[in-house]
Amino acid sequence: MTAPAAPPRSRIAVGQMNPRPGEVAANLAQIEAIARGAAQDGAALLVMPETATTGYFISDRLAELAEPEDGPTAARLGAIAKASGLHLAVGMAIAEGGRFYDSLLLFGSDGRRLATYHKAHLFAAERDCFAPGDRPVVVETAIGRIGLTVCYDLIFPDYVRRLVELGADVVINGTNWISDAWQRETWGWTGPVVQALAGTRALENGIWLAMADCTGPEAGFLSLGHSCIAAPSGRILASVGQGQGFAAADIFHDGADLARWRGIATYRQDRRPDLYR
């Protein structure tokens, strides 16, 4: 069944949290609290970070913590979405067919699971415990056509562009950008850098982009925060910065301002792929 046309204007939110490793109940309670706040702020969609339900450094506990896409944690997330009356995207570890996946689940405001996306681009030691996803996912929703990504996927412009080619006008990214002191102090791998990455992906594709990151310490690393919502111009409309909580902004799919911007920013039409081979 085809979803109804997206409303002219919607409010979307990104939630930022410091998941407790292995403490699923506590993490779900935090997700629920953020969802209530975002709903009260008028959000129709809330995006939460990568592996928000379990924490990120759980490779030695995947057999215990990873669940099927229709398991008890997913059921609880669906209930949170329904109770809050918003679409909800949450990162969690999925067990499927004898493999583990770093995944993003999207639920509708009625609590129904609309999609499960498995992270396609695995970073470093992730390859030792997770299997890579093998298909891009774009979902038709009442908010718009949503393309799903997880963390490292956002580094690859060709992959985000493929989601746009498949019809996405909103791309969401549940992530956990981490760093140590050397990365931050020597190379400047910081929150403002990953926020700029989100803005760049939005700009080069002419889309809305919502990136939800973790914040705080975990296993000797620091999650960079700066969850944000970027406009098709690359402008950052809202950001959490550091700390836990959420930020929200209005997006729209038509109107004179958007048409005027896209009439100027003809980046996709102006590409010359024959020169890029």
Helix run count? 7
Distance between the termini: 39 Å
CATH structural fold name: Nitrilase/N-carbamoyl-D-aminoacid amidohydrolase
Q: Indicate the multimeric state.
A: single chain
CATH architecture descriptor name: 4-Layer Sandwich
Radius of gyration: 18 Å
Largest sheet, order of strands side by side? 5-4-3-2-1-15
What number is the mean pLDDT? Answer: 96
Main beta-sheet annotation: 6 strands, mixed
CATH H-level superfamily title: Carbon-nitrogen hydrolase
User: What's the CATH class label?
Assistant: Alpha Beta
Total beta strand runs: 15
Strand percentage: 25-35%
Shape category: globular
Describe the secondary-structure layout:
Layout: E1 9-16, H1 24-40, E2 45-47, H2 62-65, H3 72-84, E3 87-96, E4 99-107, E5 113-118, E6 138-140, E7 145-150, H4 157-165, E8 170-174, E9 178-179, H5 181-187, H6 191-205, E10 208-212, E11 215-218, E12 221-224, E13 228-230, E14 236-239, E15 245-252, H7 256-264
Parallel strand pairs: 1-2, 2-3, 7-8, 8-10
Antiparallel strand pairs: 1-15, 3-4, 4-5, 6-7, 9-12, 10-13, 11-12, 13-14
